């Protein structure tokens, strides 16, 4: 039995079939009733409603035999979808197209007649067929009856498609409203991305999605969401995204908006994604953020599933909403960062220290972990300003600030020539004091080596060792700093 050739509109035909979403669905009385009606009206023992996809013929309904599927190469329906007219084969045993079919060879199929299921735009996605185990007349009137019944089958399919689209449109409208509501919530980028991806997964079939940042240092996954089949795929994609010079990176960077329905197009450039189960994907650029270019990436695995026009419209609208939200978040964060940053040194300011101390207290309440707080005052700042000018004094402040960096230590400028140091991960209170003392001593040596006649006085208090809370620790550290300052002044006066 020769395999039927592919229709000239095969890609569009398969896309049309996918839009009905009927493949592999359970039996439904409406289609079973039409199969029974066809068998009864045309006085044949067997009738069925079958859909032909890229690899098989699958029956939605059957009367007179169990529902089933056969490979497309052996499917009579593969011949029926080649045209728009009813296919009538009075004796399949004598027809080279069907003679090798198992049902024909067994004698169960002699008469075969099939009316193509034609979509409104003319694509044949399957057939309503009838068979008999004997030769019998099947004239134009019967062929017309079969054609009309096939049209009723298509009406039923269209009704279900339009109903699904109405439901989907309602769900999409609700999704857009919920995405718009995210704009009014004080969410950071990661939480915003997580909630947006969760919404999209709830409204359409997705197996993996992510919000990516394409930064000069390489791509990063800001947030991702995996369905039941998507976890392993996500791991592979994360691994490949780390290869900045690879074809996947080039595609994401080079094309702003892509809806990939023909997954075989990715086979040559990214075969590992095909092997991981990718069948359709899309990515949409959302615009720039302070971390880099933001990209929404979504993937479907398993069977091919084209992106419907409604899904494309929803995703493009979602991309605009998420992009706007990220832009707003970035703007708010830049304002907050400016409000907590000392403009001269780039260190955190007093407001930033207060928030860091509040967070340290919350952390201690939850974990019992203490911290150390240091207060630093530059000695000799007035002399530099008087002798060299305030511009040189500003340079001194910046030079000193630039040296206040160590693992686990955050530095802040309190104003004038005072700084604060917060050590959040000390091995012990004694170790924290040593770290801060060594850090300030190194910063003092640095500015002296740059020609500034300046020193630094440090006071340290640990919580809970020296003080019960942040406020008390700040006072204690400040008092110790002034005591140290007096000691240094006395040493200079009485060498």
UniProtKB/TrEMBL annotation:
Superkingdom, taxonomy of origin = Bacteria
Instruction: Quote the NCBIfam families the UniProt record gives.
Output: GGDEF (TIGR00254)
**Mind telling me which Pfam families this protein's record contains?**
GAF, GGDEF
What is the protein name stated in its UniProt record? Diguanylate cyclase (GGDEF)-like protein
- GGDEF domain residues: 369-495
Q: Organism classification, top ranks?
A: Bacteria, Thermotogati, Deinococcota, Deinococci, Deinococcales
CDD domains tied to this protein? GGDEF
Q: Which residues form the signal peptide?
A: none
What SMART domains does UniProt report for this protein, alphabetically?
A: GAF, GGDEF
